[in-house]
Every structure is written in C-alpha cells, then in structure tokens.
Design a protein that fits this description.
Blueprint lengths: L3 H16 L6 H8 L3 H7 L3 H11 L2 H4 L1 H8 L3 H18 L1 H7 L2 H4 L2 H25 L6 H24 L3 H23 L2
Helix pairs in contact: 1-2, 1-4, 1-8, 2-3, 7-10, 7-11, 7-12, 10-11, 11-12
C-alpha cells in the first residue's frame, strides 16, 4: 500500500512535470493526491523542501542504496553488468522524473542543478569503484573517469534512442550491457 507521503511525492512529480514547479500549488498537490494540504507541510517545510526530497529520493542514487551495498560485495564485472541493468530499468521506470529534472525550468534552477550534479557524481563514484577493482594493474584516474563517463552516457543514449525507435532495442538490452562492460574493461586493459 502506498503511504500518504509517497502519494504526495508522486503526485507532486506528476504535476511538476505537467505544469511546472512554479505553476503548481501545494493545494493542487493535496487535492490530486487526496490528502489535506496541511499534511504536505507536516512532511515538508515548504514546496522547495518537497522538491529537494523528490529529486534526491527518486533519483537513481537515492533509490538504489540497498542495491549499491550488495553490488560492492560482488565481483566487479558482474557488479557492473548488474548496475547497468539497474540503471537501464531505472531509466525505463522513471521517465517522468527524467523529464522533470531536465525540463528548462529545472535546468535553470541553480539549486536543482547542484543537487543533480551531486547525484551524478555519486553514481560515478560507484562505477569508478567497480572499474578500479576490476582492472588488474593501476590505471590513471583520468582514464577511469573517462570509462565511467562512457558507461553512464552510453547507457543513457541507448535508452533515449530506444525510446524513439522500436521495441527491438529493449530485447537487445541484456547483450548490450554485457558487451558494453566487456568493451570498457578491454579498453582499460589496453590502456596499461
């Protein structure tokens, strides 16, 4: 069963995505989520705190804390493949979230940009950790950072192209992620 707090958060995301953050009132969020407006202020000091919570908790990094711990205990190659699947699944399930945080209104919001950049850095650190563990000899930090960026951006691009293309890409996802991880590791090994 969905809690009232979660209902508020998801309704806020829906309305923020449809109408924009500034144009959406807490009264509209309350009405659409079926709660009293005061309950929003019980959970969140104001609409900005609701926004910050929404961005953090619904992000990939925020929603994967438990999985990240499990991945850190796995061998690095399978961990990265699993991480790729988790990220791909996250992208598929959270299109509204992505549309919202990359909307012109949110891109122009400096506080939101800082939070999104911090979340991306958090994801990058997880990937760098696995890449570093998997490479048999030391690799320059810049090379690891490039491989990390390649991993994230390639999966995001694959998802975005898949959204515009046919359903065939979804079926290719399993092999695509494994091939990407193997390609990145081969490149890191060659760079030594």
């Amino acid at each position: 069963m969905v809690s009232k707090k979660d209902k508020i958060i998801h309704t806020a995301l829906e309305l923020f995505t449809e109408q924009g953050f500034k144009a959406t009132t807490t009264k509209e969020i309350a009405l659409k989520s079926g709660v009293a407006e005061g309950l929003i202020f019980y959970y969140f000091k104001d609409k900005n705190e609701l926004l910050n919570h929404l961005i953090s908790e619904l992000s990939f990094a925020g929603s994967m804390n438990k999985e990240m711990k499990q991945l850190s205990e796995m061998n690095p190659v399978p961990a990265l493949i699993q991480l790729g699947h988790l990220y791909s699944d996250f992208l598929s399930r959270n299109k509204s979230y992505l549309s919202f945080i990359w909307s012109p209104e949110m891109v122009q919001n400096k506080a939101v940009n800082m939070k999104v950049v911090d979340l991306i850095h958090s994801m990058s650190e997880q990937i760098k950790m696995h890449l570093t563990r998997a490479v048999s000899s030391p690799v320059e930090e810049q090379t690891i950072e490039l491989a990390t960026s390649m991993f994230l951006s390639t999966l995001l691009t694959h998802f975005l192209v898949g959204e515009r293309a046919t359903d065939e890409i979804a079926h290719e996802n399993e092999n695509y992620i494994e091939s990407l991880v193997n390609f990145i590791f081969k490149g890191l090994e060659i760079s030594n």
